[in-house]
Design brief:
This protein has 267 residues and is α/β, with parallel strands linked by helices. The protein has 10 helices and 10 strands. The longest helix is centred in the middle third of the chain and has 15 residues, at 82-96. 45% of the residues are buried. The structure holds NADP nicotinamide-adenine-dinucleotide phosphate.
């Protein structure tokens, strides 16, 4: 049995599998997050620009489960510098209706992101953010933060799946102690992910699904994953990868699927 948490560089424990809510309509979010909680997810990944922080907060509250058991992530959007970021963090705390946020990320390297990061560091030192980090920061921008920060980012959340494995970035971040987290761990279905022949064959050998093989490939390399589904049976399926152990030769086969570029063309 593999440990269910990864210890971040500040000793905070983050679940290795969470639930992502990108592209879930705000009108559907509370129901979806409640289902995810019911089937055992405790880590929820939202963002200011998803427009559903409030509904995530409601589902957490209504679950009746101790707040301490949850790990709630959100991401800053559209900030330009230090002072507007302070307000923006407060606004997320208000919408989520939480006393603290487990992890806050800068969603993308725009604005004066060193100043934006400083504002997060101040909330972090007050205990209102338990961990802080980045999303979509590659080498140059990541190093700008490293060279100017007090708190080494706990997380960098980047596009990571079988077609974009981020080995180079992972090696760099290892040097500094930043944990990688995958967004779109199933490539959001791009590049015909769910019908990939290599993944299908491996899945068949283990009596598992393509989704489970793709997710396990990341999980087995200590990459945090946050698969999204609006279907309860898929939420269960995506979490059920504990008993799947890919062999070295299967891992090698999947490594050859690397495309060396983004499937989304964002970053
Ligand atoms: N930081 C960033 O810039 C960024 C960018 C993108 C995503 N993210 C985060 O990462 C999370 C996950 O990424 P994502 O939502 O883009 O993509 P994903 O989790 O890779 O894939 C989600 C897609 O796969 C389908 N799906 C889920 N489980 C399935 C299964 N077992 N079998 C078949 N189809 C399945 C879903 O459809 P159904 O819902 O219909 O099941 C949905 O279309 C997001 O929700 C968000 O929290 C962050």
């Amino acid at each position: 049995m593999v440990e269910d948490f990864i210890k971040l560089n500040n000793d905070i424990k983050m679940p290795r599998i969470g639930y992502g809510v990108y592209q879930i309509l705000s009108s559907m979010t509370e129901k979806c997050v409640s289902s995810a909680i019911e089937v055992g997810y405790r880590s929820i990944d939202t963002a200011q620009c998803y427009g559903n922080e409030q509904e995530v907060g409601l589902a957490v509250k209504k679950s009746g489960i101790d707040r301490k058991e949850f790990f709630v992530t959100t991401k800053l959007w559209g900030c330009r510098g230090y002072s507007d970021t302070l307000k923006s963090i407060e606004s997320s705390l208000d919408r989520l209706d939480l006393d603290y946020i487990d992890l806050m990320l800068i969603h993308e390297p725009t604005g004066n992101f060193v100043e934006i990061y400083r504002a997060m560091e101040d909330f972090y030192s007050e205990g209102k953010l338990k961990a802080i980090g980045l999303a979509n920061f590659y080498e140059e921008n990541y190093l700008k933060i490293i060279n100017n920060c007090q708190v080494v980012p706990q997380i960098n959340q980047v596009e990571t799946h079988v077609f974009r494995q981020q080995e180079k970035l992972r090696d760099l971040m290892k040097e500094y102690g930043t944990q990688i987290e995958s967004w779109s761990p199933m490539a959001c279905g791009q590049n015909n992910f769910f019908n990939n022949e290599t993944l299908k064959e491996i899945a068949k050998n283990h009596n598992k699904t393509v989704a489970q093989v793709g997710l396990r490939f990341l999980y087995q390399q200590n990459i945090i994953i946050i698969p999204k589904s609006t279907h309860k049976e898929r939420m269960i399926e995506n979490k059920n990868i504990d008993d799947l152990e890919l062999t070295n030769s299967e891992m090698e086969k999947i490594r050859t699927l690397e495309k060396g570029k983004s499937l989304f063309g964002w970053w």
